[in-house]
Design brief:
single chain, alpha/beta, Glutaconate Coenzyme A-transferase, 2 domains, seven-stranded parallel sheet, six-stranded mixed sheet, 15 helices, 27 strands, binds coenzyme A
Length: 433
Amino acid sequence: MEWKKTYKDKILTADEAILKIKSGDKIVSGHAIAEPTILLNEIVNNKEKFEDIEIAHMVPMQKCDYVNEDMRGHLRHNAIFVGAGTRNAVNDGRADYTPCFFSEVPKLFKNGYMKVDVALIHLSLPDKHGYCSFGASVDYTKPAAEHAKLVIAEINEHMPRTLGDSFIHISEIDYLVDATRPLVELQPPKTTDIEKKIGEYCASLVEDGSTLQLGIGAIPDAALQFLKDKKDLGIHSEMISDGVMNLVKSGVITNKKKLIHKGKMIVNFLMGTKELYDFVDDNPSVEMYSADYTNDPTVIMKNYKMVTINSCLQVDLMGQVVSEMIGHRQISGVGGQVDFVRGSVMAEGGKSIIAMPSTAAGGKVSRIVANLSEGAAVTTSRNDVHYIITEYGIAELKGRTLKQRAKLLIEIAHPDYRENLIKEWEKRFFDKY
Ligand code: COA
């Protein structure tokens, strides 16, 4: 047990640990449930000690005080995915955004496109061999640690010991901070009637034995509610939450028909309640890998009847999908959407679904539009798009002409907005609708 001696030598308090970081360093931090918040808060509280530090991460869960105005010159955030805590800062110019498919984020570090001077991570307790698990977040966090010059880890006895390629040995960590506290919990979303209808349409495309990827939020959750009568579903996803666990417990998800990782759910991060964290703890039926594996379309395509369900903000009549911006305003990020859209369509019998309510902003705007809002970047291109679903039905766009797909999309737009879309259709295609 040689590691036990080094373990003790590496333990610092949070205020001691952050002094190992130097001005000018590029920090990559863990995210979502595995945010190393104790270290990040300590850095914020000692901002005067640092100049020109960059803090990069994906999904923010907490307050992210390092984006505040008074951090200027000391700390600056680089978002690889935007969330509530970082959105205003990115759009007000106080933080930066780096577009990147989730599958390629590990390569940013590996190939040196993004420097990683310091990785701040949040891990489980070490096992008897001295390995800590990355727990709720393997995704880009493990690759960041592998490519960092300095690794500082929060060790938390509540972090589940997830299995798969999810471990780091104590010898690979420079400093450890005891950071035991309950993990942040994400309660299952409440689903509206519209979301339920969309969920029902999504579920109607899922055949017994399919392998699923579901994004996060009310629509994927609603889809799960309509899968209760399916048989032998599998999971190969970016993330999972409680809805997936419930279908495992009720015997719907068995992973038996999977062609790769048979009998196992494959994910790279997870967010949910304590019940989910207990469920994945030391559970050999759940394996976690980095995003360059889980989200690699050439891996995803090896699954049987791969069905992916993700959401978006706007779709134009050509089928261009905007999932991360409202006009010029960055709302989230590409995440794994395109990775899974591509992987599922390449899979035999695969389907990719983009599902959204037909309107937004309390019904004031149609999400199906003639032309995308100025400034918005396309997330899923018209060449990649497959199924679009709203509460008004399913539009299968693959193989359809521009004229046909525009008509299919008008049919699933909210009735209040169809008249204008039809006028646009007639003008664009020199035809009577
Ligand atoms: N015009 C104006 N406002 C719009 C809009 C539009 N076209 N579309 C949405 N909005 C508003 C909504 O009304 C809502 O406003 P509110 O917060 O005031 O209620 C807000 O924008 C968020 O929209 P909503 O559709 O409720 O967001 P969501 O939480 O369901 O998330 C995505 C949807 C698309 C942002 C999210 O799925 C995402 O980030 N996707 C990209 C990444 C991805 O797919 N990853 C896959 C694996 S996890």
